[in-house]
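Problem: given the chain below (293 residues), write out its structure.
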Amino acid sequence: MKWRCTWCGKPHAENDPPCDNCGHNTFEKAVVRADENPDPNRHRNAAGSGAPDSDPTPTGTVDTGPDYVWACTNCGREHVRNSPPCSRCGNPDLEKVEQTYEGLERDLETPSWLAVAKPYLPVLAVIGLVIALFATGIIPPSVLPGVGQPSPPDAPGEGVEAAGIDLEATEQAVHDRLEADRNQSESRTYDDGLGEYTEYMNRAFVAIEYEESRPEPVEASDFGVDCRNEPYAGRLAGTLSIADYDDEAALADDVATALSEETGDSDFDREGLDLHVVDGSVYVFYATCNSTN
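Solution.
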């Protein structure tokens, strides 16, 4: 004979409350199913003698009866113990019901990836938008600390066009003028990385001079420039007036002439420069170095 707790239904070998599962102090006798009760005449030998077969009769299993839980009469939440209020809705009324396993297979079904990802779709959409802004260049990667090359500092004046003169076209024309005066062994290619480095440095000096700001110091390597040593740099600080020129060619001639003595050693093989105009004065920053290739 076995015993079980009348509250939680846990079986016990003896009628020795309290229950070691829920602490309840009342046990009831467990029922042994009749179809599993061993038949004393079942295992006699074929000769009809009263001696049982050599194989022992297996012990019958004990039916401890149905399992019970305490269900909330309001929301249906099931509880192991009769300990109101309901942990879900706070309802003080719980009723004892037989525990069933209906819907267990449904609850164990693995949800689809879409169901799992659905709560995170707004976050994923924001991440996708940020990636698109970086990929299209609307937001430069340099706004992230340690990512991308430094952005040129804010500075007064113009760096693209001034007095109707295209400053970026003038920069290329200056390089062409310098190349025309060199022999083949002294030829230098225009390096975009050095051009971006000179733009940063030119604006930084202008910002310091006009606004007393303190831009972050940079190196040419921050712009992807791969030189054997530190670049040679030269600067023309407002010695030319943009009002004296009608087109890019005339301005480029005078800038190239002024830089002819500021182009460093003859073994350099790349260069870059930047023009910036403030209050009509033309500021030029030039850099050159020898590549590691």
